[in-house]
Design goal:
Metallo-beta-lactamase, Chain A; 25% helix; 7 helices; five-stranded mixed sheet; six-stranded mixed sheet; globular; 214 residues
Length: 214
Amino acid sequence: MTSQLSTTIIPVTPFQQNCTLLVCTETGKAAVIDPGGDIEHVLAVAKEQGAEIAQIFLTHGHIDHVGGTAVLGEHTGASIEGPHIDDKFGIDGIEEQGERFGFAGAESFTPSRWLNGGDTVHFGKITLDVIHCPGHTPGHIVFYHAGTKLAQVGDVLFRGSIGRTDFPKGDHETLLRSIRERLWPLGGETTFIPGHGPTSTFAEERRSNPFVRD
């Protein structure tokens, strides 16, 4: 029997960042991608679904995506995986990011595992592929579930837009290459959950996104 994947988007923090709860419905094991904050709410959603948070996956090191990681890890004992080590500078500076952007109490942490393109991560009977997509940050990664053609792209791509590259170590041309060379090959039918805002498909963005359309 093929494992089923349940997906719940949980907007968190004043930045309305799309934290995502992924649940293997066969085992009840769950992963949280990018727990930026509002951790009590994230825990409540998991409890409502009867899910056990076993893993925390991070796309990149910006505070609105990782600010609640340490607290969620302490509450659940979940393993923290990602991002790519090139975003270590962001993780190391999390307290300073918190002060600058108004995230009181953001705590530093060390991931259990840094991730590289070509790696896989697991929870329950679900496997996600790891794709390194630098540009917004140098260590940004994307998580892809081949079975449902679902990609969690963080701040690489949005409906009608792309990630900012004016933050430290961002690079616009690198970001465009990441989208075209590493996301588009996954197929137009792929649905993606961006770091902020509504979902879309790669086909729709190739058709209408003014930054990366064909």
